[in-house]
């Protein structure tokens, strides 16, 4: 038996969470030693009574681990454990590090630079637009985005990352065969097909519930050096994620909102408690430059969006002209968008339809124009020209 298989089997034993199991592994000298131990040896471990010892010692007769492996194979997923090199490095340091992670999709060495973006399920239009914009900019700068596939801010964060051509990781509150909410099934497919992945520590058929969502929040926070809360009331799962991140010694950031709406009260409390106030991508870049010297800046963001734009439209470089207002070169696509907005504010979907452009190109161009301070995103989710443009 390999260490990988031993971790996988231990993850299926009822009544044994990661924290308790990791203590037993340390006490008995290795993960395989736990499965080979007698009922008597197991009872010698702190916190293990006769009932739990019996349940663990009888695993060969009670756990359908071979059937579970067959489900994993049928879904095209794989299992990561602390014995794997691809296991998320930041999770290894946690006392309650998951014993096994079911992964659908691929991994990336860039995941160590991930940013968690979380918030309310019942988000406002302002919160949704900010989450989508910031995640798109973060993705264009090359940082993976981690969230929970929930309604509201999580969904906006995943979509924004995909808009920016980036990698996003969805940490599920149930097994891979129980995606929730059901309306995000297509989003989950896009995440996997466009280079991201779905992660869960729960067995394939485990249905999500209130407890499982709270359990998965520690993985969202634990995979990342920083967590950004875009919008959340005072009693919110996003604040639980932020608290966990802070307890892990990770950076916590929050986007402020209106003082007269409960949607923003949780973010304001986080800021009062020391979270970094985020007003735009430059603030995120500053935090990440402190964590990883030189990893990202507004310049690298602008360059990465431009590179993606040129890859989709190689001839656009020959069409660049000099903008007399600010001395910067503008592409034909940028000028088309500015011309459309000269008639009044529009949302990104309307612009894409008017210009017959794919959504990801429209959003990437809008991001670059925002960074150049030629346009702004209004609270109603529409883009408008800045004064003097």
Structure description:
The protein is α/β, with parallel strands linked by helices and 389 residues long. The chain folds into three domains: 3-99, 5' to 3' exonuclease, C-terminal subdomain (DNA polymerase, domain 1, Orthogonal Bundle), CATH 1.10.150.20; 105-291, Rossmann fold (3-Layer(aba) Sandwich); 298-385, Winged helix-like DNA-binding domain superfamily/Winged helix DNA-binding domain (Arc Repressor Mutant, subunit A), CATH 1.10.10. It has 18 helices and 13 strands. The strands form three sheets. Strands 1-2-6-5-4-3-7-8-9 form a nine-stranded mixed beta sheet, sandwiched between helices. Strand 12 and strand 13 form a beta hairpin. The chain is elongated and about 80 Å long.
What attributes does this structure have?
389 residues, alpha/beta, DNA polymerase, domain 1, Rossmann fold, nine-stranded mixed sheet, two-stranded antiparallel sheet, 18 helices
Largest sheet: 9 strands, mixed
How many distinct folded domains?
3
Structural class: alpha/beta
Number of helical segments with 4 or more residues: 18
Number of strands: 13
Backbone CA Rg:
23 Å
CATH topology of the largest domain: Rossmann fold
CATH level 1 name of the largest domain: Alpha Beta
Question: Please, what is the average pLDDT?
Answer: 86
The neighbouring-strand order within the major sheet is: 1-2-6-5-4-3-7-8-9
Q: Alpha-carbon distance between the termini?
A: 67 Å
> Per DSSP, what share of the residues sits in E-state strands of 2 or more residues?
5-15%
| Shape, per Cα inertia axes | elongated
Low-confidence stretches: 307-327
Helix content: 40-55%
CATH architecture of the largest domain: 3-Layer(aba) Sandwich
């Amino acid at each position: 038996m390999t260490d990988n298989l031993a971790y996988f089997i231990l993850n299926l034993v009822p009544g044994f969470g990661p924290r308790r199991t990791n203590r037993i592994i340390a006490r008995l000298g290795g993960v395989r030693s736990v499965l080979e131990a007698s009922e008597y040896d197991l009872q010698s471990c702190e916190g293990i009574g006769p009932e739990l010892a019996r349940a663990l010692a009888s695993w060969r007769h009670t756990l359908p681990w071979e059937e579970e492996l067959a489900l994993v194979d049928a879904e095209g997923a794989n299992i990561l454990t602390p014995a794997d090199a691809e296991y998320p490095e930041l999770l290894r340091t946690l006392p309650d590090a998951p014993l096994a992670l079911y992964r659908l999709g691929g991994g990336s060495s860039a995941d160590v630079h991930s940013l968690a973006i979380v918030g309310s399920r019942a988000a406002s239009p302002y919160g949704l637009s900010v989450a989508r914009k910031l995640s798109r900019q973060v993705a264009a700068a090359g940082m993976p985005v981690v969230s929970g596939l929930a309604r509201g801010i999580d969904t906006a964060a995943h979509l924004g990352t995909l808009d920016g051509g980036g990698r996003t990781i969805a940490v599920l509150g149930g097994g891979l065969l129980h995606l929730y909410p059901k309306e995000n099934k297509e989003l989950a497919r896009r995440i996997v097909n466009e280079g991201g992945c779905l992660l869960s520590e729960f067995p394939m058929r485990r249905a999500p519930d209130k407890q499982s969502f709270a359990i998965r929040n520690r993985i969202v926070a634990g995979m990342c050096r920083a967590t950004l809360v875009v919008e959340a009331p005072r009693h919110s799962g996003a604040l639980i994620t932020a608290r966990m991140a802070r307890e892990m010694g990770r950076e916590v950031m929050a986007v402020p909102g209106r003082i007269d709406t409960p949607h923003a009260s949780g973010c304001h409390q986080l800021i009062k408690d020391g979270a970094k106030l985020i007003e735009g991508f430059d603030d995120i870049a500053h935090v990440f430059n402190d964590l990883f010297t030189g990893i990202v800046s507004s310049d690298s963001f602008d360059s990465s969006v431009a590179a993606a734009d040129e890859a989709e439209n190689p001839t656009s470089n020959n069409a660049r002209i000099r903008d007399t207002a600010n001395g910067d070169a503008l592409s034909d696509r940028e000028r088309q968008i500015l011309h459309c907005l000269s008639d009044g504010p529009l949302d990104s979907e309307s612009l894409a339809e008017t210009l017959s452009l794919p959504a990801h190109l429209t959003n990437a161009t809008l991001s670059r124009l925002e960074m150049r301070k030629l346009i702004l995103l209004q609270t109603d989710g529409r883009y408008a020209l800045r004064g003097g443009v």
